[in-house]
Amino acid sequence: MSLSNTVELNTGWQFREIDLGKSDSWLPVPSIPSVVHMDLIHNKRIPDPSLDTNELDCQWVEEKSWRYMLEFATPSRKIGDKAVIVFEGLDTVATVKLNGNEILKSDNMFVSHRIDITTQHLDTSHNTLEIDFASAARYARGVEKDHPEHWFIAHQGESTRMGLRKAQYHWGWDWGPRLVTAGIWRPVRLETFSSRVEDVSVQYSVDEKSKDCQGIIDVHVEANAQVDVWLGLQGPDGSSVLEKQITVEKSAQVPFTLRKASLWYPFGYGEQSLYTLTCNIVHGTTIIDNVRRKVGFRKAELVQEKDSYGKSFYVRVNGIDIFAGGSCWIPADPFIPRISAQRYREVLTAMVESNQVMTRIWGGGIYEEDIFYEVCDELGILVWQDFMFACGSYPAFPDFLDSVEREARQNVRRLRHHPSVVLYAGGNENYYIQETYKLTYDYAGDKDPQSWLKSSFPSRYIFEHLLPKVLAEESPGSIYHPDSPWGDGNPILDDTVGDIHQWEVWHGVMKPYQIYGEIGGRFNSEFGMEAAPHISTINQSISDPREKHPSSWTMDFHNKAGQQQRRLASYISENFKVTNLDLNSWVYLTQLLQSEAMHYAYRSWRRQWGKPSQRQCGGALVWQLNDTWPATSWAIVDYYLVKKPSFYAMKRDLSPLSVAVMRKHNNDWTKLFPSRPDTIEYDLWVSSSKATHIENATIELRFISIRTGQEFLPTQHKTARIEANSCTTILDNTKLDCPLDRDAFVIFAKLIIDGNVVSRDYDWPQPYRYLSFEDRGLGVKLNESRNQISISATRPVKGLIFGERPGLTLSDNSIDVMPGEQYIVDVDGLQEGEALTWKYLGQAEAPTCKL
Ligand code: BMA
């Protein structure tokens, strides 16, 4: 929005601790938005919590109350003009005074405020704005005490967090620090105006066949009288498709029709066409106020139809079924104002690079910054938006419900024009709490929202009544799902309906990741495996060299997951031969572990995308894309935006055409690995997200001894037609004898189209710890320009991982290398004299090689 009379109140602020009274001197605030921790770091009162165990030295901050103060001049104002102070977000328990008069009390960080101060006495040269932030941690404890009628149950953080509408991860999570912030976390400004555009939005429907789009533009203005409004809609190429001038009193609706509209598609399925909607209040030839936004037109559906597996759950955009391969998003920093637009763009770009088409904004964080959605619109990333409730049984007393309603209404209004936002969910794992603690829930039998309020699970009112009502009113036709996971009121691990969070791998009984394909649901909106970040990130977050080993307190401190040591150690020893557990080996093995787990998950679940009307699995969103701080966690891209090897596994398995080969294992997961099978069975398939089928694709199949690198069967070539947007089975249950004198072998599949290798896959006998990897004959060569690595081997190599750091980018990593194959990896950012490091499984040489 651009208003001619807007003063951004973003500099000149000071702050101090309130409880110390006047004795404490004011400290400068570099700029607003900020939070008190950022300002204390700037003033060297606390260290940066990302480093070492500094988080502990920051804990005192949350118990204090803080005062922010700004002295400012106001622009002179014409008689009759309004003056409004806008707070886009206050974190969280705030009392605002202007020249000593209280003008606002707020206790929800997710809402914005417009405070009319027209009748306040404003001095053109000197006014004082003061904002007191009470300790959110203390306030939240009070809310829980004041509501003994409700059982506050929380997994993660502490139960008091649920009484306050504040980002829940601030209380600490199993991947992030506890830093309960306070402050002016979103912009503040002073507006003076005679009239303004309050909001402009579009509601529309799209006919996916004709691509015609019909809708209305809904304009709301704030003015004392009627105003003239000019509306314009420009196509993606800048041409004008609609121009209209109307007179508006409060609001107006203008119908429009676009014939053969340029529709918005997720990337890989079409263009990301964006139109520009302009709304000007005009007076003659003068523009009094102006709002401009990018809008996109698309039809989004959640297909939930009965089928042979139960009830489907997948997204269809403009008539195209989309396999939602992607990841879950958590806040990218403990302090949101510290995240630059560039940083948002880089993480989201990484999604596209790894062929991920959907992100789920998880309910324990925030309704993201505008830039997040703008970049998703631009890049074609589908957004699954949780409302901000996570892992708890939330209260539902009247003030709380009012606050939630306001928050939901405002945020839906803010997001509804983004074509990328395709699905809203009530929150994260709140029905898991309901199920675990047996809170009252009779989905089919009790349809009276008022009775839910009196039950032991009152937040059902929020998830099944309030939020869908607000969404239907503010963004009619939007897709709503009561929680993640949720499936028609069935048990949360029901694999026939709705979405599931598959945590039986890693959490729970720690099932082997090799069986992901057998334990998936209709849509796997969470699952994951931890890995350490690269050494460069560990070096940035741990300063004491003595603490840089896998078992140190500081390494543990930077991994918040419960029982993480024993879980990681179990998975490692179950799968790999452990000869050394120094830091390099630990980083390597955890990373290979995660990369393998992702490989099993994505290729198995994408296979279950099946074909039209047989979409067993509609998507897989790994927990989690990104990190909040430098950590060992489930993230696939770390805090410093360094990609873990699993990133490349996803990139391969989600590529538009991806070949997969997999041998079967015992169905009993407790005895998954037979020591020496005399026959194996294997499957071979190709997944495609292409719009058209491909005739005459060739799949090359080789069976290579791990010991010698020799093939014991002639290379096979299969010709197949690859079906569009489906999984094409090439071989199913194919048997292969494994006489005792035969070496363990890799099945190597290669998809060749028009003479080009478009995808490779490898199936190795499991577990890797039974295998020997001596003398691989690996050749790694860097070209003279230092921008290309060529790789070859004389015997099969598992998991060749190059060390990464910020600024060094690779086109591939975590690579299996087969004899007779040449692998090329593009490198960018390798400096003169800088060594490239790598490691592969069972490497006999120095733990990390250098070039
Ligand atoms: C899921 C998420 C998060 C959590 C993650 C890992 O339950 O919803 O709450 O961080 O698992 O445990």
Characteristics:
851 residues, alpha+beta, Jelly Rolls, Immunoglobulin-like, TIM Barrel, six-stranded parallel β-sheet, globular, binds beta-D-mannopyranose, beta-mannosidase activity, glycosidase
Percent in helix:
10-25%
Based on the coordinates given, report the CATH architecture of the largest domain.
Alpha-Beta Barrel
Work out the count of structural domains: 5
| N- and C-termini, Cα separation | 52 Å
Number of strands: 50
By oligomeric state, this entry counts as: single chain
How many helices?
A: 13
Short summary of the structure?
This protein is an alpha+beta fold and 851 residues long. Helix 3 runs parallel beside helix 4.
Describe the protein.
The chain is of the alpha+beta class and 851 residues long. The chain has five domains: 5-190, Sandwich (Jelly Rolls); 209-295, Immunoglobulins (Immunoglobulin-like); 300-653, TIM Barrel (Alpha-Beta Barrel); 656-772, Sandwich (Immunoglobulin-like), CATH 2.60.40; 774-851, Immunoglobulin-like, CATH 2.60.40. It is 17% helix and 32% strand. Strands 4-3-5-10-7-8 form a six-stranded antiparallel sheet, with no helix packed on it. It binds beta-D-mannopyranose. The site of beta-D-mannopyranose has 11 residues, from loops.
